[in-house]
Amino acid sequence: MPTDIRPTTGQEALELLKEGNARYVDSLTSTDEYMQRRPELVKDQNPLAIILGCSDARVPVEIVFDQGLGDLFVIRVAGNVVAPSQIGSIEFAAEAFGTQLVVVLGHSKCGAVTACVETLINPDQNYSPNLQSIVDRIRPSVYNLHELATANGQDVDADELVDRSIRANVRMSVSQLRHGSRALEDLTNSGQLLVVGAEYDLETGKVRFLDS
């Protein structure tokens, strides 16, 4: 049960999670179809789609797509970037479960993409080495857009650049999944795997699927 009361310490947050799990366990005897499926998932899973999404707390993937327990194999990382661990996770799901759809899900007002745009507008911007590694993975999809935006010597509209960069970053991740893994490329070329990009709008709740 979500609450508007936010914890002021890590310990308070931990207690809220414990209370939430207790409510969840109590609900397992519910006649709700959502809960009745849980026992069959103990032995196996058969997700209908693999989602590579952003870690942003405002984009809960199962809720966004109105799916239940076991329906989605979800990998979340800031900026929905593609790195070896994400590729390996997707390869595992595609091969082990035969899941035939991968969706790279970006979203409006993405903090990771915004951070990347800020480094291009203000090169003196500094981040921790680990956050910088995420920014660096996003940078190739943003760089050309920034160069075009500054080519005429006018001031850059940062919000517009972020919006366009979010979609460019999704498309880059889609391309990396299609061509950065022999296993995924073979599945894609044989028609056994579809990899698509999408953007979730925080204001409307709508998911827009992008053309390749």
Descriptive account of the structure:
- This protein is 50% helix and 13% strand.
- The protein has helices spanning 10-26, 33-36, 38-41, 61-64, 84-97, 111-121, 129-150, 158-179, 182-189, and strands at 49-53, 72-76, 101-107, 194-200, 207-210.
- A five-stranded mixed β-sheet has the order 2-1-3-4-5.
- Helix 6 packs across helix 8 and helix 7 packs across helix 8.
- The chain starts with 9 loop residues before the first helix and ends with a strand.
- It holds the Pfam family Pro_CA.
- One of its GO terms (molecular function) is zinc ion binding.
- This is Carbonic anhydrase.
- InterPro entries: Carbonic_anhydrase, Carbonic_anhydrase_sf.
Percent of residues in helical segments? Answer: 40-55%
Superfamily (CATH H level) name: Carbonic anhydrase
- Uncertain stretches: none
Output the CATH class name: Alpha Beta
Strand content: 5-15%
**Separation, N- and C-terminal Cα atoms:** 39 Å
Strand order of the largest sheet: 2-1-3-4-5
Q: Main β-sheet, in a few words? A: 5 strands, mixed
Per DSSP E runs of 2 or more residues, the count of β-strands stands at 5
Secondary-structure element order, as H and E? Answer: HHHEHEHEHHHHEE
CATH architecture type:
3-Layer(aba) Sandwich
Q: Please indicate the count of domains.
A: 1
CATH-assigned fold name: Beta-carbonic Anhydrase, Chain A
Q: What's the alpha carbon Rg, rounded to whole Å?
A: 19 Å
User: What structural category arises from helix and sheet content?
Assistant: alpha/beta
The whole-number mean of residue pLDDT values reads: 89
What does the overall shape look like? globular
